[in-house]
Design a protein that fits this description.
Its EC number is 2.6.1.42. The chain contains 9 helices and 19 strands. It is of the alpha+beta class. The strands form 2 sheets. Strands 1, 2, 3, 4, 5, 6, 7, 8, 9 and 19 form a 10-stranded mixed beta sheet that branches. A 6-stranded mixed beta barrel has the order 10-11-12-13-16-17, surrounded by 4 helices. It binds pyridoxal-5'-phosphate (PLP).
């Protein structure tokens, strides 16, 4: 349906182009692609199917890397999953094949206009050696939404989950079994159209690669200090900050490096004249405080288009609401509210959340030349995380590793 809308908009564009010769000519090719897309949707396969999965896995198995030597995102398993799409035929058959280089033309649109979106999820091995995913349906929905935002093709999320399960069975020996270790899964969709016109891609590739990863904190929590970035923004209303698309990330690195140069570990993204808190680096942000009404409240910014809808964020909100021990709010929170809460001694804890770390405790924010100190555990000066941060982390890990039976944990 989204293509139909674009198509009708483009017809108008094409008409404009016809009126003014030359300058707008490229829109004719855009219109042609869209016309092709509109014509072919009926015949093209609207999804791939796990039942069609073809397997030609690697026969030269790599040497496993010992757990203690794992560096996040550096080691890849023996195999990967690949599915190709084109506008005429739709999705092809999914294939499991050896992890390796992919061939794309230098003209591929992914290399020019960032037709790329991705996911980050993990497979966990429980005490019985069974492999588990955590809420994979949410990752599939989000990948489809990101894809749609870039006019890349959609697919049936259950089918991709089933294909990923088969990839996990194939690469089972790479899934670490120690608690805290897991296999990070990176589904990716790219546009591979081979003409450098700015229009929807008539070809795409979906692939899934996996890497064994260690616990984010090898020797217990390490709280981070943040620099509030006031000169650059990550996302804005109507922008793409709520999609996991590659184009959002490269521009975020410079502010992070600037924060690091000043001695901070991460940056805190703000938005607007009133310096609303949005995200921490590439994590969602939570603030636990006593509000001006004297209530304990866990606050995270609302999904207003500027916030990536994190699976961890959603899970933490659900758990906290279920516990029903304090107020839980998705609302705007500004730096001035944080500054005032700290001054009044009402700031209790702050943390970032994401699949890679689960929770990342925050100890300090550098903001407009001043330091805002965030308490960790007042009862234990040696610990690097507050009691709520720890409890949320422990509960989520217990669910992910199947120690607590929970519908969020899906057996492979
Ligand atoms: C992936 C991501 C998150 C965290 O999402 P999870 O689903 O919890 O891993 C938060 N913010 C940004 C910008 C992200 O890319």
């Amino acid at each position: 349906m989204i293509l139909q809308t674009i198509f009708s908009q483009t017809k108008t564009l094409a008409r404009t182009a016809r009126l003014s010769t030359g300058v707008l000519r490229p829109t004719f090719s855009l219109a042609t692609t869209l016309q092709q897309r509109a014509n072919s949707t009926a015949a093209a396969a609207s999804t791939f199917r796990a039942a069609d999965l073809e397997k030609s896995p690697s026969t030269q198995l790599k040497e496993l890397v010992p757990n203690q030597d794992l560096i996040f995102g550096h080691t890849f398993t023996d195999n990967m999953l690949m599915v190709e799409w084109d506008v005429e035929k739709g999705w092809g058959k999914p294939v499991i094949k050896p992890y390796g280089k992919i061939a794309i033309e230098p003209s591929s649109v992914v290399l020019h206009y960032s037709f790329e979106c991705f996911e980050g999820m993990k497979a966990y091995k429980d005490k019985q050696g069974r492999v588990r995913l955590f809420r994979p349906d949410l990752n599939m929905q989000r990948l489809n939404r990101s894809s749609e935002r870039l006019t890349l093709p959609n697919f049936d999320g259950n089918e991709l989950t089933e294909c990923i399960k088969e990839l996990l069975r194939t690469d089972d020996r790479w899934i670490p079994s120690d608690r805290g270790y897991s296999l990070y899964i990176r589904p990716t969709v790219i546009g591979t159209s081979e003409f450098i016109g700015v229009g929807p891609s008539d070809r795409a590739m979906l692939f899934v690669i996996c890497c064994p990863v260690g616990p984010y904190y090898k020797t217990g929590f390490k709280a981070v200090s943040l620099q509030a970035t006031v000169d650059k923004v990550r996302a804005w209303p109507g922008g793409t900050g709520d999609s996991k698309i590659g184009g959002n990330y490269a521009p975020g690195i410079l502010p992070q490096i600037n924060a690091m140069k000043k001695g901070f570990q991460q940056n805190l993204w703000l938005f607007g004249e009133d310096h609303q808190i949005t995200e921490v680096g590439t994590m969602n942000c939570f603030v636990f405080l006593e509000n001006e009404q004297g209530e304990k409240e866990l606050v995270t910014p609302p999904l207003n288009g500027m916030i990536l809808p994190g699976v961890t964020r959603d899970s933490i909100l659900s758990l906290a609401r279920e516990w029903n021990e304090f107020k839980v709010s998705e609302r705007k929170i500004t730096m001035s509210e944080i500054v005032k809460a700290e001054k009044d001694g009402r700031l209790i804890e702050m943390f970032g959340t994401g699949t890679a770390c689960v929770v990342s405790p925050i100890k300090m924010i550098g903001y407009e030349g001043k330091e805002i100190h965030v308490p960790l555990d007042p009862k234990d000066p040696n610990t690097q995380a507050g009691p709520l941060t720890k409890r949320l982390n422990d509960t989520l890990l217990a669910i992910q590793y199947g120690e607590i039976e929970h519908p969020w944990s899906v057996l492979v």
